[in-house]
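Before a colleague's protein record goes any further, I have to sign it off. What it holds is a sequence and that sequence's fold in token form. My question to you is simply how this chain folds and whether the tokens agree. Thanks in advance; the entry in question is below:
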Amino acid sequence: MSTPNTERTYASRRRNFENWCAAQGVEARPCTTETFTRYVTHLIRERKQSPNTVETAWYAIRTWQPDGRWVDTTEARALLDRWKTEWRAPNTRKSKADPITGEDLRAMLATCGNDPVGLRDGCLLTLAWGTANQREELARCTVSSVRLVDGGVRVRMPGAQTSVLVRDSPDPVASVVRFTSGWLQVLDAHGAGAGLLFRPIDRWGNLGTAGMSTDSFQRIVQSRAKAAGLDSARISFRSLRMGGVTVRGTAEFSEGDVETFGRWQPPTFAVFPRHQPG
């Protein structure tokens, strides 16, 4: 029997497949062998996803097909087997971390529920993606650093002269407003409405009085990536910064000083491009 995390991951992979099929003008369910093989090729050659991530999408799509409409995976399996060999080669990937794409981020956020840990992790992921902050910078972020505004969350680090607007996503799964407002409510309910924004939570649901370590941020990113079916061995906190900036290469400027926010440009980012389907 599959776990809730697996079901959420499979649902996300199926939506991605549906969106791709719609753009290609082909049926997603039932799909043809040709469509399935083309999609696997797309994940490998264009998206360059890890073999584990491709296999997760593979099983999600196959188990979603109607009874009696199984596709022939012979060609797709040969592609994936070759990709596994290439992936293990020393010169296949030069970066120590793979960027987290918008699609990957959504899958990770889909594993974050409305419980305190889920809201905290979702807040961390969306703010890290949207501001491109380094771990050390987010670790000193305070409750007063964030402000819910129309259309998103504005973040101003302690001592900074400027702020960054993280625009909200129309997709509730990826809503920075939902996660941030929910986490602020949790902090307020525990009498922690001031001080550091990100706090550890023990197994009994108690909030720590000190802030979280940067290593904890790293563990959260990797654990959420693993829960989403991504290759967590190739993902780090830096993957959020890499992916966010790469996907939004042409975002709008709203303020001039960006040095406090990871020294990335420009300083205004959207959590997801507005044209991206949900």
Notes: The first strand starts at residue 146 and ends at 149. The mean pLDDT is 82. The first helix runs from residue 4 to 24. Strands lie at 146-149, 152-155, 164-167, 269-270.
